[in-house]
Design goal:
- α6 links the parallel β7 and β8.
- The protein contains 15 helices and 14 strands.
- By secondary structure, the protein is an alpha/beta fold.
- It is globular and about 65 Å long.
- The chain has an eight-stranded mixed sheet, sandwiched between helices. A six-stranded parallel sheet has the order 11-10-9-12-13-14, with helices on both faces.
- 42% of the residues lie in helices and 17% in strands.
Length: 403
Amino acid sequence: MRIVIFSQYFPPELGACANRIELFAKGLAKKGCDVTVVAGMPNYPFGKIFDGYKGKLFKRENYNGVEVFRAWVFPSRRKNLLGRTLNYLSYFFSALIISLFLRKADVIIASIQPFTVGFVGLFFRFVKGGKLVVDVRDIVEEGSELFQWKSISRGAPKLEKSLLKRANLIITVTSKLVEYIKGYLNDKRNVYLVENSVDLDMIMKSSTSIDRAQFGWEGKFVLIYAGNIGYRHNVGFIIDVAREAQRKGVEELLFLIIGDGVEKDMVKRKALELENVIFLDPMPKEKVLGYIKAADAFFATLADCPFMDFALPAKILDPMALGKPVIAAFPQSKTKWLSSFLPIIFLPHDDPSACLNQILKLKSQLKILQEAGYRGLEVIRQRFDSKKRIDYLYSLIKELQKS
């Protein structure tokens, strides 16, 4: 079976989308499929084209047995609407050109957002044939309610809906999004749940803990956040908790933040006078795993906004796969749903002082943290192992091909 995947993001870029599409591509290739990925020139999240890709309009390469075509994009950190729009449209037109030179596919997978990627897949189906699978990670209509999307034209949700109605199959990342999309399209559609997952074999082989002593972490209780620092992630709350700890003279806590995003500069300014916060730039996944493994707990945060009610933060899966306890300051609307299947320890999300008190209490209850870590690893093995997810995805596209 020949499969062409259109995704704006792909390793060596970082983030949930790149990880998801990498697992799709490698997993389907291992099933014997002939897989080609059309991705953008790596630039996310830095907003600069990575070394080895600069000055190129197109590039063809082999990535772990998968054929990858790189399309030129306008690099952007996506801090403003213009930069984001140019970034999205540049991939759209570059990928359209590449698609004209690709061989026919049996199945086309287009991963959105941005929703423009889906129209590249739709164009390829029109020109070359094949069945179109749209992989939905976000929904424009719901996302447009957030302040960073206010300037997007009213036509975007209508375009996205027309795309989804033309898909042969829709897959998405959470059960809540499955139900939302069915209602959003207002008809019976083939919408299936293919959750984000974890390559357990890779994590176990590549995750070597950093030396805590080398970084001066002796006697510290280290809380780590690793991921996007954007509008929806509320990383500034971690700084509020760190400030409260410093104000109260709590010296044993250390907050480590790894990542980049549109709010990173603001968050760093907010932490200027704090001695208990360390920022590190994005790094290869293997190195991030080493820091997570050395930390005492993973500290996840989310903003209180409508779209996030649908989200399962992919960033918490790797820590759980490492047996690391996850503590989270999430809006109450998310805690009931997530607590039904994930062993997350939830903290107050709007009161830094109360959150700090809970962290200090947990610090003295190591058995509770250890138990959360053990249960988290078991959940990953049972529900989020990439092998099971790829098996299911493969069964879906095989049935689609036959239909």
